[in-house]
């Protein structure tokens, strides 16, 4: 009897495990909106290699951590989204040479505009000076915020950059008193780290 009970429990565990493993992906609701777990393939564009996206959609918008990998499965980035816009902690990785899989940069983004947000602005006619209300739809925008760490590809040592809603600031302004080497203050980078393939290369 005990043996039969044990076998029954074992079969139940196997059944539950296999059910959990079979996560349904790329599902849409009745309104044709993307929902739940999705895996998306992005092909090569203008000489840039293709990649895969994997993460969660909620009502057709990216939510939570999304992972980006190369066609052979090498991790490129882990990005946090809220309402389809970068908002939260992100990590980027080296994808070439001996540093594959090692951190390249990490830090947080904050969203300044929500994708799809509707605003009304007044447009002035240059001839009649008449004002006409016009609706615009925001595309969504994110900027760096807080402490960002940039890693040297050869040594693995990190330097820090400091941002306050996209503007570069000093360590004192953010209250950071650690002793890691700090780069000179410069203009905020507009490109995402994995889009700048020439950055942080090994020195010849």
Fold topology:
Blueprint: H1 2-21, E1 27-28, E2 34-42, E3 51-58, E4 61-70, E5 75-82, E6 85-86, E7 88-93, E8 103-113, E9 118-124, E10 131-137, E11 141-151, E12 158-164, E13 167-168, H2 171-174
Antiparallel strand pairs: 1-2, 2-3, 3-4, 4-5, 5-6, 5-7, 7-8, 8-11, 9-10, 11-12, 12-13
Could you explain how this protein is built, in words?
This protein has 204 residues and is mainly β. The protein has a domain at 33-112 and 141-195: Histone H3 K4-specific methyltransferase SET7/9 N-terminal domain. Helix content is 12%, strand content 44%. It has helices at residues 2-21, 171-174; strands at 27-28, 34-42, 51-58, 61-70, 75-82, 85-86, 88-93, 103-113, 118-124, 131-137, 141-151, 158-164, 167-168. A hairpin with a 6-residue loop joins β9 and β10 (131-137). The longest helix has 20 residues, at 2-21. Residues 4-11, 13-21 and 197-204 have low confidence and may be disordered.
Number of helices: 2
Main sheet summary: 11 strands, antiparallel
Mean pLDDT: 79
SSE order = HEEEEEEEEEEEEEH
Helix fraction bin: 10-25%
Show unreliable segments: 4-11, 13-21, 197-204
What is the first-to-last residue Cα distance? 72 Å
In short:
This protein has 204 residues and is mostly beta strands.
Defining key terms:
two-stranded antiparallel ribbon; 12% helix; single chain; 13 strands; eleven-stranded antiparallel beta sheet; mainly beta; Histone H3 K4-specific methyltransferase SET7/9 N-terminal domain; 204 residues
């Amino acid at each position: 009897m005990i043996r039969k009970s044990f076998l029954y429990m074992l079969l139940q565990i196997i059944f539950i495990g296999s059910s959990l493993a079979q996560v349904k992906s790329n599902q849409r609701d009745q309104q044709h909106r993307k929902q739940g777990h999705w895996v998306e393939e992005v092909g090569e564009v203008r000489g840039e290699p293709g990649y895969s996206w994997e993460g969660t959609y909620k009502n057709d918008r990216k939510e939570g951590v999304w992972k980006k990998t190369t066609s052979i499965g090498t991790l490129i980035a882990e990005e946090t989204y809220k309402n389809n816009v970068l908002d939260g902690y992100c990590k980027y990785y080296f994808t070439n040479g001996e540093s594959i899989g090692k951190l390249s940069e990490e830090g947080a983004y904050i969203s300044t505009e929500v994708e799809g947000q509707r605003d009304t602005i007044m447009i002035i006619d240059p001839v009649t000076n008449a004002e006409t209300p016009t609706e615009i739809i925001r595309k969504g925008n994110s900027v760096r915020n807080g402490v960002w760490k940039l890693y040297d590809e050869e040594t693995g040592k990190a330097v820090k950059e400091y941002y306050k809603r996209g503007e570069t600031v000093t360590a004192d302004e953010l209250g950071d008193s650690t002793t890691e080497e700090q780069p000179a203050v410069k203009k905020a980078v507009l490109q995402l780290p994995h889009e700048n393939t020439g950055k942080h290369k090994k020195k010849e």
